[in-house]
Amino acid sequence: MPGITIVGSGRHVPGKPITNDELSKVMETDDAWIRPRSGIAQRHYVAAGEGVSDLGVVAARQALESAGLTPQDVDYIVFATMTPEHAFPGSGALLGAKLGIPGVPALDIRQQCAAMPFAMQVADGLVASGAARTILLVGAEAHAGFMPYAWDVLLGESERTPTPEEFEFATRHRGISVLFGDGAGALVLRASETPGHGFIAAQNHSDGRGMDQIYVPGGMFTQRHYWDAGHDSHIPTMKGKELFKSAVTLLPRAVRQVCEKAGVTLEEVDWFVAHQANDRINASVRQSLGVPEAKVPSNIEKYGNTSAATIPILVDEMRRDGRLQPGQLVCFLALGAGLNWGSVLMRL
Questions:
Q1: Catalytic residue among 12, 173, 275, 278
Q2: Which of 20, 178, 203, 299 qualifies as a cystine partner to 258, CB 3.0-4.6 A?
Q3: Predicted confidence (pLDDT) per residue in 15-25, tens digit
Q4: How far apart are CA 324 and CA 235, in angstroms?
Q5: Residue 97: closest CA among 134, 190, 82, 89
Q6: Comparing 4-191 with 198-347, is the CATH topology the same?
Q7: Catalytic residue of the set 44, 113, 197, 340
Q8: Cβ proximity of 276 and 141 under 8 Å
Q9: In the predicted model, what is the mean pLDDT of residues 252-263?
Q10: Using an 8 Å Cβ cutoff, are 185 and 325 in contact?
């Protein structure tokens, strides 16, 4: 049976963009500090009270419309997020209810920034097994809850200036907070109608020995009570140099392995659609693989790192502007907290 392929896509980012220079209102930073380190110029944040299923339902409706389908055609939801509305239940069921399809099974996965290679492999297995025909795959993140900002100042809701304590607190965490933005991307997946096309191979890995390279230290179920945490322990902590080294070592290896498994060369791949964590990481991965820059698209400048949403957002942009075409061979690659990392080959 042919593997799954992408028959629809959509994306959604909330609110107005927040530029690098606007962040200087709440911390010691500016465009000259952020852009050379990451490639990011702006990002979006959810409004207070808005969650990932709210973002995801907008992207999902777009994806279904582009596929010429309705929510009632969906057999299975796979929802990827590391920033759910609740500790439980997961956000996939909430998305299904908001789409008007209660009863459709919804699987929540937690591979963080590496979600898409894992989710695509899971979706392919569901279709191959006969458990589903049409899968709605959504990646959505609401990182705003991590952020250390004086929000009323950043969003222009107040004319006050941050207190020295607020400014120092945000500046202390600027190394990670400037990287993340909020958004959602959705893909509709079905078995390819063309023999030899669709999902070809995956090479996914997890290694908990690297968990301290990026994680949230506070709260959850090692605590009594789980919401008890230190003043800033809700903010992710990151060992930037170690994480960079892991990404530029493990991702090229996974790409070469999946190509070898599929019996294709790097030169035969039309696109390397990488997770948008940092332009410097993706440039190093590209250089290690020896592939042309034109084959490694980037949109991190506009959105920042939207974690599980980066790949489907980029896929939707590429489908709508005509870069992605039927018959092309695409390699999806990503690394995230866990550590989790992997790659997938798909012929569209």
A1: 275
A2: 203
A3: 999 999 999 99
A4: 36
A5: 89
A6: yes
A7: 113
A8: no
A9: 98
A10: no
Residue 265 DSSP code:
-
Instruction: Assess whether pLDDT exceeds 70 at residue 1.
Output: no
pLDDT tens digit sequence for 269-306:
999 999 999 999 999 999 999 999 999 999 999 999 99
Is position 113 annotated as part of the catalytic site?
A: yes
Does 275 participate in catalysis according to the annotation?
yes
What is the band of 227 on the pLDDT scale with cuts at 50, 70, 90?
Answer: confident
* Buried-state track 287-314, b at ≥16 Cβ within 10 A, e below 16: eebebeeebbbebbebbbbbbbbbbbbb
Contact 139, 83 (CB under 8 A): no
What CATH superfamily is the domain 4-191?
Answer: Thiolase/Chalcone synthase (3.40.47.10)
H/E segment holding residue 261: helix 240-262
d(CA 233, CA 81): 20
Which of 20, 305, 331, 340 is flagged as catalytic?
305
pLDDT digit string (tens) for 38-91? 999 999 999 999 999 999 999 999 999 999 999 999 999 999 999 999 999 999
Instruction: Give, in order, the Cα–Cα distances in Å from 51 to each of 44, 84, 139, 216, 228.
Output: 13, 7, 12, 19, 22
Whether residue 164 has pLDDT greater than 90: yes
CATH number of 198-347: 3.40.47.10
Is the per-residue pLDDT at 98 higher than 80? yes
Residues linked to residue 206 through DSSP beta bridges, in sequence order: 340
Q: Is 143 a catalytic residue?
A: no
**Tokens linked to 139:** 């990646």
Q: Give the pLDDT confidence score for residue 170 in this predicted structure.
A: 96
